[in-house]
Amino acid sequence: MMQEPGAAAAGEIPPMARPGGQAGLRSRGATETLVWLGRLALIAGLLGAWQAASGRWLSDFWFSSPVLIGQRIWEWVDQGVLLAHVWATVAEMGLGFVLGTSVAVCAAFVLGSYRGIAEIFEPLIIALYNIPKLALAPLLILWFGIDMTPKVVLVALVTFFLIFISTYSGIRDVDRDLVNVLRIMGASPMQLFTKVLLPSSIPWILTGVKISLPYALTGAVAGEMMVSREGVGHLVAQSALMIDMTGVYAALTILMVIGVLVDTAVGGGRDSMSHLRNRDLVQV
Amino acid sequence: MSRFAQPSEDEVLVRDLVRASRRGLSVLPPWLVLAAKRCLALVLLLGAWELASGRLIRPFWVSRPSDILARLLEWALRGDLWIHLRATLLEMSVGFVLGTALGLGLGLLLGAWPLAERIVNPINVAFNALPKIAMTPVFILAFGIGLTSKIVLVVSVVVFFVLFNSITGVRQVDPDLIASVRIMGAGRLALFRKVLAPGAVAYVFAGMKIALRYALAYAVVGEIMAGNRGIGFLVESSAGNLDTTGVFAGVSLLMVCGLLLYEAVVRVEAFMLRWRV
Amino acid sequence: MIEARDVYKVFSSSGGDVLALKGINLSVRPSEFLAMIGPSGCGKSTLLNMIAGLTSPSRGSILYGGQPVIDVNRAVGYMTQKDTLLPWRTVRDNIGIALELRGLAKPERERLVREHIELVGLTGFERFFPGQLSGGMRKRVLVARTLVYEPETILMDEPFGAVDAQLKLVLQAELLRIWDKTKQTIVFVTHDLGEAIGLADRVVVFSKRPGQIKLVKTVGLPRPRDVHRLRLSPQFAEIYEELWEALKGEFAEERQ
């Protein structure tokens, strides 16, 4: 969902705000090394403390341990279990995402081009937008059963709203003067669409995609946790049901890795957020 | 517009021209026409729904506006509505406040101390990337199915959002501002208290509307996954009983909640920022 | 060529109704360079938009080539202050867009685009994107784009408004040089009295809102004109004096 603010290198911060004060006293290379050492130390320290405490001060039934979790993950990989469930989750995300995006882009273009209709339906759209999408999961399960479909639809819904609003904003944002000049040059409505509307909306669609991908993951996982036979979310829920905490933590770790991969793939997740923050886009 | 008792020649002209250009319905002011169209659209949609249900589609699948309304009234009169509403709002607000406080505190600190922030960053990113919703079973096992687990869930979501916002908030404080205050002799602590923190808070505030949305959404989701109270619980238990009307009633409640919440925040924000042009 | 007959225009908005133009009667001759000048809000841009067919009069009519203007007027070229280049297209593709829209064959298109790139002095920059060009260069692309499909008339709404003083003179000289060759009818809206006199055959002075024609003056200065030196000539000063008298009254009242 949000990316490294730390990605803004230490050098961007005015020297006076840095600890140690004097600009240039510490070389860039030295700071980098310090940071990496610090990170390594922190993570190793935490994991080490966890491992050490497990069985002694912390019940290893409830808190498990890094080693146990690692072993479980390895088991899962070995048995092919991991691949099967990860694939299920990714498939739900992918299908739902494609579905949601296609409908959203079409809807955005239609409403963006026919302002009259857009105006009339605006309050309705805002009303629907205000429903937390995840709360619709029970309804979807009621309608579509317990296999993949409700999850795909849920992801589609989550994706739809975000991409719709982004694309719609982009279309509304098209410079009226530009459109007028091209009309005077003789552009037909179809030409305006293909030569102006479409190209100018692409950055907006991409932004929508960037924002919605992490939410697609959330949606898929949410659906799986409510009712499912497969998927990483299901792994979490199932392990919890059997009070198998090691399983729970192992599945959570997998989820964390997937999440980081998604966030990284999307790259400027945080930047997109700040760009659209004032438009109140974000909704789960 | 006119300083004289009688309309000027120009004003008469304007009136005539405006009147001439309006025909038919557009004699009415435009906002009224739009409002009328919107009402009409709503009525048509609800009407179509009402009529189709029972004739074209089995009410089991889509329920009916009239049934939904009846159910809402029933809930309201029986008192169920208020109990569950209160639960959800409580979870939401407590979680929101705690999450914001934590996120703000940590965020401001890390924002002002870049080295620490960078060291902690991988942990931040990793936990932020994890869909918090997956933590729900852990919270429920730890805190039971009462309000507490939902509050913890909401906190876990809001914290990260506010945390990242606060860090960015500190970063975006105008460097010139910082420089001039430092030249005036401010030490690190004073700088933090008087420039960085207030500047960041203004920025963070802008994101509060979104954080509130998160809070509501996750409170509800928590209730759906395992709960005995709240609007999410209403939705889930209705679904469990194959009671579509109940599900739709719950969802409409959420919709209204979301809308009112948004309006409320907009008003509060406008009030608090009324010094801003 | 272009005629405005007893034109009135009212704008209605949530803030109220505004009378933008009142009783405009104006004739533009073919191949004439006409400048329109007046304080902000006097309706000169509105009049231009009406000639372009983007909006229509509340009363009265606009005739183009003897015919009333209905819907968008495709016989004109339109250039505003704003940068309306398509950022995702190169200079070449931006200039050629009007030709694309009209379905011209590729070789024809390329030839005309090449000619016009040369005309505005941007040879060598064909494949650049607008984002990579300076403000002045972008203006030249806009000029080329407006000219490439050889419209009969060109409407310009403060095209050099946002440009610095030196560059403005350069662009003005360019415009005159090109116009000398092609001799289209040009209707040019500006704030800058010096620019109006320097470029135009006739200058129309508008009153403040509601816009009415206060004065129409023929600028007798001989062509070809040197925009840089022109300002120093006594005839220029005379005409400037006269037009300024008419104009300043409108600005002074606005300040109150």
* Total count of helical runs of at least 4 residues of chain C: 9
Q: Structural class of the helices, strands and pairings of chain C?
A: alpha/beta
Radius of gyration of chain C using CA atoms only: 19 Å
Shape of chain C: globular
Average of per-residue pLDDT values of chain B: 87
Helix content of chain C: 25-40%
What pattern of helices and strands is seen along the backbone of chain B? HHHHHHHHHHHHH
Alpha carbon gap, first and last residue of chain B: 26 Å
Mean pLDDT of chain C: 88
Q: Which sequence of SSEs, written as H and E, runs from N to C of chain C?
A: EEEHEEEHHHHEHEHEEHH
What oligomeric arrangement do these chains adopt?
Answer: heterotrimer
Topology:
The complex is a heterotrimer of chains A (284), B (277) and C (256).
Chain A (H helix, E strand, L loop, with lengths): L27 H26 L6 H4 L2 H14 L1 H33 L1 H15 L7 H8 L3 H25 L3 H9 L4 H38 L5 H10 L3 H22 L2 H8 L8
Helix pairs in contact in A: 3-11, 4-7, 4-9, 4-10, 6-7, 7-9, 9-10, 9-11, 10-11
Chain B lengths: L8 H13 L8 H23 L6 H4 L2 H14 L1 H33 L1 H16 L6 H8 L3 H25 L3 H9 L4 H19 L1 H18 L5 H10 L3 H29 L5
Chain C lengths: L1 E12 L2 E13 L4 E5 L6 H9 L6 E6 L2 E2 L7 E5 L10 H5 L1 H5 L4 H14 L15 H13 L5 E5 L7 H18 L2 E6 L2 H7 L2 E5 L6 E6 L8 H4 L3 H22 L1
Parallel strand pairs in C: 3-8, 3-9, 6-7, 7-8
Antiparallel strand pairs in C: 1-2, 1-4, 4-5, 9-10
Helix pairs in contact in C: 4-5, 7-9
